[in-house]
Amino acid sequence: MWWIFVTELSFSLFIVLLFYNNFSSFLKKPIWISLSVIIGWFFSIAMIFVLSTDIVSSQYDECNSCTENCTLCVEPYTYFPKSIMNILWNVFYWTTQVITWTVYPILQGYVVAGEFKVIEKFVSAVRMNLFNYVIMGSIGLVFIIIYYIKYRDMAALIGVAILLSTSFGLLILFLLLGWGLVDIPRWLLTRANKKNLLDSQLMQLTSASHELEESKNNLEIQLKAVRRASDEISDTDPFRAYIDIIISKCSEDELSQIVIGEGDFEISYRELCALHARICSAESNFQRAKIIFIRALNQAFKTEDILKSVTNSTCVILWSHKAQRSGKFANFLNFLEYFWYVWVEGLAMRIGGLICIAFSLATIWSELIAPFSVKYSIFALLVQIPYLPSHTIQALILIPMMYMMSCAYVSIFKLRIFQFYRLLPLQQSSSYSLLFSAALLSRLIAPLAYNYLLISNQNNNTAFQEVMQSMEIIGTSFAKYLPTIIPILCAANLFNIGPLIIACLKLRRMEFSTDSFNETKIEEGLEILEDERTKRNSEDYDPEQQLSIQSSSFKNKNNIRHKTNNTDEDEDENDKENQKIDD
Length: 583
Known about the structure:
By secondary structure, the chain is mostly helical. It is 70% helix and 1% strand. It has 20 helices and three strands. A three-stranded antiparallel β-sheet has the order 2-1-3.
């Protein structure tokens, strides 16, 4: 029944839209960025439904081709002929491969380029990725030569591209699984204990406070550079239009506090482009840091209030910064709230954590045993249980696949690479980070499907396997034996060896968000929390003033040309300046 398959794809799209609304917004991002990200995320989630349909359809075809000792063949609800499945997989595979290796890198370069014209931004984006393309082309050329010498078949060279892309994706997949298989159960068990949860939130508050201070200092430096550039460029200078565009990207409140410009500035188009890129990055980082800091504060306040209310005889959560309910059902709702937070939530998290531990152990065992005897793989045993209806088999495929997908994808959503990549909730993710995540997820589609087929012993008759025939160039040994590193990676994550290695390499900004406890950060977070509680209880508390750049007051705002967003005349004026530059 095709409508069931369409329902599954619609459910995938619904999940993607929910996630996108959490990390970004259609109103805050250009439509082409939103659509690009949603396409990449959609394919990465819908893949598990396509794969499960492919497996049950191939099992039905195999049953029909049986000649002796055959059982009754029942057509699955989501059956598709192999010809249709081949079309589906080719659409999924080649669409994601094209966008992940060509479209996304160019778009990522485009959104961070500081040039003022569209064509210049595009040229800059190509230039940024040129080195990567040269490296990938050189590696591909080596494999093409080796493949041609061995097989003398130029027509199958497209298989080399599949081989290289899938091999790279498998390596990334197992690195992410090694972190996610441990982190998801640990995340649930940490939240099962409110004291541990508060300690974790206090560490996050400390980190958020440091990031806010760092982003504030960086923004102040860039604003001083803008002020200095504006002072040096007169109203009649040809570069005046460019500096006005840069000023329009600055926050009026923050810019008004900068009195004197600083820094050595060479007036040139290239320097203005670089300043444009830096001020856009600094502004967005500062605004995101403010919101994340406030969010970390509110979460810590909430957990602390729950802990203080555990022994409350009235069975009511006494919120410190939230008005108490009133009305006819207030007492009932207060009791339900107390019952959930004090009794039910912790138990639910513990049960969920134990279930995830079982799934993680099953995944590790299946990955570890598959190279030697795949028939003992737990996932293979589940799929091969005889006399099960097709919808049950499909459920036994989807559940482990969803867990493996969650472990890998959650790792991407928690990964942080310097200031370039970090997905933040509350719609605070940058365009670059969103595109980077979509590119990385798209590269994991084929490796994740291929790996599951290997550990479930279903890699013989599926349509997906026909698309991936080029993996036989190196046999399945590479894909089979590489997963044996997963237990090592899981052990490293379990005992927090990874952060130690990152610290030794001085890669402070390349890390995963973890719940490993640090007493120094907890104490510092507690001090920040108490300080903010005192400020909030004061009558003259102004959160925006507390989080603004602290510097001397800016007495004469007219000394710097600044865009005001409150009037239509200024909007028209800025549009005319942009049009003049494009012309």
